[in-house]
Each structure stands twice: as C-alpha cells, then as structure tokens.
Structures
1.
Amino acid sequence: MTLIFFLFAFLFSTTISHVSARDFCVADLKGRETSVGYPCKSPNNVTVDDFVFSNFKVGTLNQFNFSFTPAFVDHFPALNGVGLSFGRVEVKKGGAVPMHTHADATEVIISTGGKYTAGFITSDNRVYTKTLTEGNIFVIPKGLLHFGVNVGKGKASGIVVFTSEKPSVQILDIALFGNNLDSGIVGKTTFLDVAQIKKLKALFKGSG
C-alpha cells in the first residue's frame, strides 16, 4: 500500500513539474478545441505576434446602440490556459447593454469614460446597481443576469475583463424572441402580449 501511495505521489509531482516547466501554451487554433481549451502550438512555431492583439479598436454599433470588440482566445492565442479574456465596449448616448449572463465567467468592468449604470440581479432577486464614471471598477459575479445603460450626455466606454479565455453569453432578449418557440407559449410563460411578442420576434429574427 505504501508503495502504491509513493508511486501515485511520484507521478503527480512529475506531472506538476512538467506543467510548471512549460512557460506557455499558445493556442493552436487549427487543432481541436476541447473543454480545457486548444492544444498547444509547438514552441518552434510560436512568434511574438501570438502574444500581441492588434485589433482592440471601437467596433460597429449593434441594434442596442453599443459596440463590443472581443479579445478572446480565438482572436488572441496567447490567452490559451490563462483564464482571462477582454472586451472593449462603447455605448452610444441612450444605448444599453441588454440583460444577459455569462455562465462560466465573472466579469469586471473598468469604466474609461461617460456615465454608465451597471447592475446585476442575484439568485434571490436582489438588485445591485451603480452609476460608473471614469476610473470606477465594477465586479459582476459569475452566472448572474446583468445589464448596463448609458445615462450620460455622450458616449460611455469601458474595458471588460472575463475570468475565462472564451466566455459564453446568453442575451435574454434573444433567448426569448430570437427562436422558433411558439409565441403563445412565450406569452403564457412571461405574461407578455402575444402581438408584442410577434413584433419582437420579427425584430430579433425569431419565428413562431
């Protein structure tokens, strides 16, 4: 029994040493993605450009009047295995980031300009909101519904940091109205008027 324990301890320590000895695991984006990320690119094929993301610029406005530029592992191979990713957000005057959730990532908002009211709803339906200005940092716990609204006189901007290299996202409006679920069922489960649901389905390219 002692010998078996020693053997497992040796194998475990060897594995840890091997992982620790590896300086990085730049993603081989041509490889198959798994639940633990992409396979590592051979160090012989890694260049300094793998460690630089050069497109962190203002994106195109969407129907909610905000833009989002992601710097996820699919765009930035050096993030593979790091447990972090980034986004650049700009919200036009009067615009909003709709209610959504990241099931696998905490989000940190770093406000860089404007006035932006951010908030989240806990599992017991408590609401936490704060109007952010330049220099404020706001933490949104993993998996909770959250939102943001530009409440200033000009654009609002920020950088967001996620505790995942490739965070998932589910936007509530699109989940409700961007599908082919029968409008009558949506109405019964939300108490919304069916005519309004059909209008929203047309807006979000849903059907039913």
2.
Amino acid sequence: MSDPVVEPEPEPTPAAAARPRDRWRTFGAPALAVVTVLALCLGALVGWLAFGERTPPDDGVDAGFARDMSEHHAQAVQMSQLVMQRTEDEDVRRLAVDISNNQGYERGMMGTWLDDWGLPRARGEERMAWMSMEDMAGHDHTGMADMEDLPEGVPMPGMASPTEIQELTDASGQEAEVLFLQLMTTHHISGVEMAEAAVAQATQPEVLLAAQKMVDAQEGEIVLMRDMLAERDATPREDVDAWLAAQEAAEAEDAPSPVPGSGGHDH
C-alpha cells in the first residue's frame, strides 16, 4: 500500500503576508507612540513634583514665618527654662519641659527649611513684614498694627519685655509660676495668630503642616494655662475665654460646608 501523497501548503501570497504589517502600521505603531508620549509626560510630571524647583522667595510668607517664629520660639524656650529652675511644682515643670522641647525642636526645623531653600536665616526686612502683604486682606491678623504699639525692647507682639524677663528671673515658687503662666499665655496667643497667618498664606507643604500643628498645640496649652492660673487664684492678662470663642467662631466660618447627601439628616 503506497503512502498518501501530502500536498504542500501553499505559499502565502504577498498580499496575505503584508496584511499583519499593514495592521501594525495602521493601529499598533500609532498606539505605541501615544503610550510612549504619555509615559514620557507622566515621568516628567513625577520628576518635576519630586525634584522640581520649590524654593520660596526670600521676602515671602514661608521664609518670613520661619524667621519670625524662630525668634518667637526662642523666648518661649528661655522662659520655660527659667521657670523650671524656680519651681518645684510638677505640673508647671512638665508644661515648661514640653514647651522647651517642642519649640526648641521646631526652631531647628525652621532653620533647616531655610537652609534647604538656600535662604539666609537672618531676615532682610522688618519683622512680620510678610503679614502686611496685600493678599492678607480679609484675614483677621493685626500683627503689623500691633508692631507700632510695642513697648521698648519688645521685638514682636506677645513677647515679654526685658523687664518682665528680669521679673521672672528674680521670682521663685508660686510667684514664678503665675508670672510664667501669664507671660506664656500672652506669648502663645500671638504665636497662634502668627501661625494662622502662615496657614492662610504659606505655599510650602511643610510650612502649612507645621503651622497648623503649632496652632493646635498652643491653643490647647492656652486652655491648660488658664486652668492652672485659676488653681493659683490668678487670671491671664487677656480675656482668654473671649479669645477662644472668637477662635472657634473663625474656625467654624472657615470650615467647608457639608456636601448634600454626604451624611446627616434634615428634619
């Protein structure tokens, strides 16, 4: 029995052989080009976000806040260390240690910002000049107006005068505790207002985050110090309750309105 004859497969015609190449030219190559362009654009965007120019101006809010708040913090650290040496009260000492450690750390952090931005730590303009910028209109920050009424030797609102620092240096026991709590409450109120101005106008993410943390921490310490003064039959030099109420009202006004249908019930 003879083997079956196997017919050879026909050679593909030139038209059939060219058909896949035609499809590639028509659809594949343009699609690949689009994907490649998109990938390059995405890579450029990611690179810009990660490594792009982020240096704020030397006379802007970010740099001004870093310099002024560093100086403000320096006195808070000084007063905290003074009272730590002049009282045996554990609550006051614990508060003073927290303020000294936290604000000392924040001073270093703000100095590092300036170094990273390639900007000098020393200011080239008046203190708090960044708070007088036109784009601060509409924000209730009166630091620049307060600058005109400062006592001699007081560089910024809220800071203690040289005479008050000497009084704290000479005091001891409960007298030192009360003076420290009063001075630090005044100091914190102005510090919160300065940090709020940075939250409203700064451009650098690290500044915005740190400034908001300062607002939250110092508002909490103001409440604590008000209560500690009451325990010592003393009061702050400011109407802290009215100030806190104004803060709450401002925060409520700035809070975003709830999105309809996102939760809650209307009755």
3.
Amino acid sequence: MSLRPVIGVTAYVERASWGRWVDVPGALVPHRYVQHVEDAGGIAVVIPPRPDTDHATARALLERLDGLILAGGVDVAPELYADERHATVQDSRPDRDTTELALARASAEVDLPVLGICRGMQVMAVAAGGLLEQHVPDRVGHDEHSPAPATYGEHPVRVVAGTRLHAVIGGVADVPSYHHQSVLTHPGYQASAWADDGTLEAMEDPVAGFRLAVQWHPEVDTDPRLFRALVEAAAERASRPSGP
C-alpha cells in the first residue's frame, strides 16, 4: 500500500488560549487547511515560522515533505520588494516573511509540489523577484475582494485555457476572497486566472511538476479539487525512485 504524502502548511506563532492555559504562544493555522489536506488523502504537518530560517534550513525541512502549502495571512513587507509602504499595509510579520520566502525559493529548486494561497501567492511572486499591488481598491474602486473585516467576499474568476489550473477547476469558478493586495509581476510564472476587474487571481510555473498559486481562499470553500491536485502531485513525486 502506498504511503500518504506529507504536506507542510505554513503557520503563525500567535498568543492563544486553551483549557487553563491563557494567552500563551502557539503555532496556529486555521484547521480548514488541515482538514482539506487530510480529506484529500494527505497528512498535514504545521510549519511554525522562525526568524532565522535560511536556505539550508529550508532545504532540510523540504527533504522531509512531499508537498507544501504557503498559507494565507498578513501582507508581505513591501521593503522586501523594494517598494514604499502604503498606508493600508498591515503590520509586518518578519518571522513568516523570512521563513516562507526561504521555503518558496528552496521548493522551486527541488520542484516540490506547492500550492500558494492568498498571501502564499504573493510570497511566491516576491521570492521570484516580482512586485505586489499594495491596495487593490485604489485601482478597481471597490472592496469586493475584501468587503469587511473577517468577512469573505465572493466573485467569479476566469481561468486561462490550457493551464494546469484550467485542468483542475475548469474555465470559470466563483471563489471566496479576502485580500486587499495582489500580484503585479511574477517572473517565471504564467497568469492562469483573472477577476473581471483585471486583478490577477492565479499563477503557475509552466515547467514545474506542480507549482500553483491562487489569490482566493479555497480552504474556506467546499470544493476540494485544488487540495486533491496538490496531494496527488505530492504522492506521485513521493513514489518516484530516489536512487540512481
């Protein structure tokens, strides 16, 4: 029987409370990520951030994984893509920025299956030398991508024909959305989905085995196809002979 692939999911370190323990640091990620991975046949492992993550540490971690999810979260620090900070940019989380940029770069080197989600898509773009749009409403004139605090919007995306994403979810999908930033440039990636207002909604590496990112939040949806595709790609990679 084949082994279930192990999928790492990046996380926060946040103060949290449970039982008699109040306001103590915990490694946290919304459980919906874990549930989707498990439902798709994978084993989810939470990856806490560490501010000293370097390339060697990232490579050592990825050697123990079959796939990776770069999860959603706060804005990437604009200083990391040499831009001035917009007034709406959230407080930076250097531990996540350092860890996830290292993982994004190292995973590309070893062609590990990766799914980037919201912030994760932006991390992948910045790791490749791309730029972010710091406040989408300045361009589009509406807040439909993030209508209110802790409230997901919903809108259609148009998927580019012939892409891997098209093979997974088809040509049009209504998606849950919660972001005020987006990817402007994405070296090495091709655009694979757009919102009607011109916002880039997905990108993928056309030469990688599976390296795909979406600007929306599939973890809060009931559609399992993106997670199934990641787990299937991870299982296929894990089954390859490792020796000569």
4.
Amino acid sequence: MSTAPAARVPRVLDRFLLTGTVEAVEQLTRGARRIRVTGPSLRDLQWAAGQHIRVLVGDLRAPSNWMRGLRDTLRTYTVWDYDAAGHLELCIVDHPEPGPGARWSASVHIGQRVSFTRPEGRLVVQRDAPYHLFVGEETATVAFGAMLRALPPAARVHAVLELDTPQDRLPLPRAGELTWVHRDGAAPDEGGLLLEALRSLRLPDEPGVAYIAGEARACQAVRRHLTQERGWPRRATIVKPFWTPGKRGLD
C-alpha cells in the first residue's frame, strides 16, 4: 500500500526546506511588514541581493492543499536582508487582492516557526554595469532595496519607482538619487505612469543595466521603451514580473 502524500511531508520538509523562528515583526509602512527570521539552519547561506525564497504559508499536511496542486501553500518573497550569522528578513507588501500569502504575513507572530526554500533567482546586481537603472512599483522596491544596499558607494544609480502615496516608501538607500512617482489612489495602469517618468529621465548616452520588476504588463512596456526608443540591447535589461491582475504564481 503506497504512502499518502501528506504522510510523507516531514521527510520532504527536512530535505528541501529550511526552518527558522520569527524573531521580530515590524510595520514599516501602512502596507508593508518586515519579518525577521533566525535559526541555525539559516547560517552561511548562498544569497545575492535581489534573490527570493518560497515560504510555506499553508499546511502541507492538509489533503485539500494537495488536491489544489499546492497552489495555496507556497508563496515567493524577495529577501529584504540577510546576514551569515543566521538572520533573514522579509519585507512583505500587501496586495489589493489578498491571498494566502497576505493572510499569512498579517497573522505571523514572534516565536512562530517558518519553513522556506533556499534563496534563488537572477534578479541580482550586475557589478560590471556602467550604471544601474531600477524601474518598478511597490512590489519591486523590496528587491531594489536589497540591491541598492549591495552596490558600492561609487556606483552610478538611476531609478523610477511608482507608489500609491509618499507614505508607502520603504526605507531605501540613496533615496535622494531616486525618482518617485505617485498614483494618489488610482489603480496601476500597465506602466503608464512609470513610462511617462522614464521618458523624462536623463540617462547617459550609453546603455547601463536595467532592473525591471513588478506588474507583468508594466515590465513589458518598460523593456519596449528601453530597447525600441532608447536603443538598448535586450541583454541589458533584467526583467522580473511579480504579478498581473487575475493571475497567480508567475514564478
């Protein structure tokens, strides 16, 4: 007789997931929480600023989750900060349509055990870039914060960042060098506000490296602007769509 999937879960967790304990929870803005996790298994991880982890936000032992293909069980979050002593921080931004991940982040508490995959992803700083261009909205600013901290002070930086209001700004490094635009209550419009600000941004004549993240259609529009209107090669753009209306799990 074969073993049911839920019965095999403990062995799967031990093999593929790291586990830590929530040490602190802090509300950074009205819609973003910093969650600090610590534990011996988190020491000396291979992590590059901008990479993400997949957090277990549901119960793998629940048969209903296996019936849905685990779609409500794992959620992807960028690592806000990490140190090799075993401390990892997430900064989770609320979404207009809250799902399992948003409910998990709203209820997480100090002392809670958290399991997640090892860091991965290609949205990382290219250190040989002539300069760095960051373009995205709220969901991109977590990755951008980590990447900006990883840059040397002499690195040239340009950015266009879209938020709802100024009160939604995360504490990003080099904030005075970044261009901020605000929707003021309007819904994201497939990158229209970002594109308007980006077209007005004075950049050096030669291409740098662009990190484009956030809503999928906005990412595509920004890449088209850089490659078709400014003549950048596609290899100079690193795109990471995090979400799009009506669709889950872009990873």
